[in-house]
Specification:
two-stranded antiparallel sheet, mainly alpha, globular
Length: about 300
Amino acid sequence: MQAADLALLFVSSLLTAGLYAVSSYSITLVYGVLKLVDVSQGALITLGAYLAYTMKTHLDLDPLLTSLLVAPLFFLYGYLGHYEIAKRLLQKYSGGRVLENSLLLFFGLLLALTGAIYLVWKGDIKAVNTAYTLASVEFLGLRVYLTRLVIFLYAIAVTVFLVYLLNRTYVGTAIRAVSQDLESSLACGIDVERMFRISFGIACALSAAAGSLLTLSLAFSPIIGLEFILIAIVVTVVGGMGNFTGAFLGALLYAVVDSLGVLVVGPAYARVVALAMMVVVLVVRPQGLFGERGRI
């Protein structure tokens, strides 16, 4: 492979990382605030993708616009419904096994929602075509797909928004306080339950937006959420659990390693290389490459 091809592969993988980053933010937020691993967010990613497909098919809405429309709806679902599931879990299991039981509960919810998506949209592979699906632009002297650049810029905007929200607003400060010291937050008069609800609302909105976004560059089926939630867990672990900046940088690293894996061992085993990277990080630096810095 020539140097130009390698450079194009490297840049393309970096741009793809934007999608991985947005997909991982829901896992990062829920774990950072409640110390729960909500794998059911993968089903919400899938649902976001199918809603984008449906809106494009019947109303000719661009997936970018759909992502902005579905986010408030999924925020309400997370605030009013999804939190109630976690709340019952926390109330029932208060003896130190919350994490284990959250994995079982949310994995079951993931399978149930995925099954419902199968019933509604069937198992056929879907794709969304826009006016710029095949368009390309010059980026860093290379020709890349416009959709990848759009997704990357979208991811940067979401990252900046989340960092601003958590560091420059009262709600964000309260969420960080709850995540760091629950008892002190209660003593200071913070409505902890409301912060939990808001956290789940934001997480569900991010998942739906990520699902809508992935339709710009990928074909998908009802199991796309399972794939992306696995990637999200790898990215979150590598970057540092509960760390948005770390998740973004972890997504960049994952995308590069995944692309190199395709070159070295082929597409069938590339994901194994990326998972091996996570194992190495867990052994060498369990807190993630970026540790506690920037954690919620």
